[in-house]
Amino acid sequence: MTAHDERNSTLRWGVLGATSYIATHLMPAIAATPGCALTAVASRPERAAAAAELGRAFGATAHPDYATLLADPAIEAVYIPLPNTEHVDWTLRALAAGKHVLVEKPMAMDEDGCARVEKAAEAASRTVMEAFMYRFHPQQLRAAEILASGEIGELRLVRASFAFRIESGSGNIRLDPALGGGATWDVGCYAVDVPLLFFGQAPQHVSARLSSRPGLTVDSSAVATMDFGRGRSAVVDYSIDYGPRAAYELQGTRGTLMVRNAWAMDGEDGVITVLTENGVREETVPAANHYQRQVEAFARAVRNGAPAPMSLTESRRTARVGSALVASAAVGGVAVDTSTDTSEAR
Predict the structure, then answer these.
(1) Residue 152: which of 47, 281, 295, 254 has the closest Cα?
(2) Which of 120, 219, 288, 292 could connect to 29 by a Cys-Cys bridge, CB 3.0–4.6 Å?
(3) What is the Cα–Cα distance from 35 to 303, expressed in whole angstroms?
(4) What is the sign of the dihedral through the CA atoms of 27, 38, 58 and 51?
(5) Among 261, 301, 311, 310, residue whose Cα is nearest residue 135
(6) Residue 54 confidence class, pLDDT cut points 50, 70, 90
(7) 269 burial class (0-12, 13-18, 19+ CB within 10 angstroms)?
(8) Which residue from 178, 244, 170 is spatially nearest to 217, judged by alpha carbons?
(9) What is the CATH code for 11-134+294-306?
(10) How far is it, in rounded angstroms, from Cα 310 to Cα 8?
């Protein structure tokens, strides 16, 4: 991939989508990041007025649709937070238009979709990264340091629980199966990512049980296990029936590390608890805006022509495991192999 043109030190961003969540978290993060500028927003035609209002708040131009924004030569990078089923299509369109892309998780709902994005990114010499904002909070970096130090010994078990309740009848797109809704492809992505991040590999097998709240046509809760081989495992649960919860534990041969809230927001300190034979100690990690840190890391990769801090190989792996969880649940929780890259692209 090519480095960002240093003659123009400001990376100019466009956002495909105009919602209150984006306006609260990602748009301010882009606007506040040194060397970045929120230049344009776009929406579906029926939300043009809302997009224009959001644009004015950030001094950004409002485009009447997504394609028009992608055709704007002033835009160099785009953030894509559209419904899950649209991530691959609009990422490919953005790459074809010569844009760098930060796309919301899940990048794709199957491994082949991620492989298509990877192939297109290589052809366009552009940076693409899946947006797992929680990875960029200093408490996750500190947890990795403690694990690497050997204080809790060799990692044997990861427990991760991620959940927040979405009310039935709310009209939330996460409840619409036609838009890739359901717990697995939303909050489940975080639960899946934690063991993959800390073990640094895909599991060999996964097994899952999914359930649906009465009246819903998407999965709303799940419990799953993952086998990483050599006595290493993960147990995860995720849900849109209960919450909020975003906690994980790293169980080592000599101790346990616990992160109370992986979604710690700006203004909220992170808390890590370590339990060993020497007793219990607690570390406070100063508050940080992980959305802004994610934007900073992505922009740095673009500027330097360096690999994105979350690789497309990792995204393929996450999509593979998510698909396997769904497949396992469909046959009553039978273990499904996840050890092999099943995408066609190499």
Answers:
(1) 254
(2) 292
(3) 10
(4) negative
(5) 310
(6) confident
(7) middle
(8) 178
(9) 3.40.50.720
(10) 25
pLDDT band at 1 (very low <50, low <70, confident <90, very high): low
Q: Which DSSP letter does residue 77 get?
A: E
Residue corresponding to tokens 């990483």: 228
CA neighbours within 13 Å on the CB side: how many for 284?
5
Return d(Cα 316, Cα 101) in angstroms, integer.
Answer: 16
Which residue's structure tokens are 């960002």? 4
pLDDT, tens only, 120-165: 999 999 999 999 999 999 999 999 999 999 999 999 999 999 999 9
Q: Which residue has the tokens 């990795």?
A: 144
Half-sphere exposure at residue 77, Cβ-oriented, CA atoms within 13 angstroms = 30
What is d(CA 180, CA 185) in angstroms, rounded to the nearest whole number? 7
Say which residue the tokens 């419904």 belong to: 83
Contact 338, 324 (CB under 8 A): yes
Whether 309 shows a pLDDT value over 60: the answer reads yes
Per-residue tokens: 304: 């330097």
Angle between helices 87-96 and 111-124 in degrees, nearest 10: 10
The alpha-carbon radius of gyration of the chain (Å, integer) is 20
Burial 232-262 (b: 16+ CB within 10 A, else e): bbbbbbbbbbeeebbbbbbbbeebbbbbbbb
- Annotated domain spans of the chain: 11-134+294-306, 135-290+320-337
d(CA 227, CA 274): 24
Pairing status of strand 36-42 against strand 11-16: parallel
Q: What is the pLDDT of residues 174-205, one digit of tens each?
A: 999 999 999 999 999 999 999 999 999 999 99
pLDDT band per the 50, 70, 90 thresholds, residue 343 = low
What does the chain come to in residues? 346
Cβ atoms of residues 20 and 57 within 8 Å: no
Fold of 135-290+320-337: Dihydrodipicolinate Reductase; domain 2 (3.30.360)
Rounded to whole angstroms, how far apart are CA atoms 195 and 248? 9
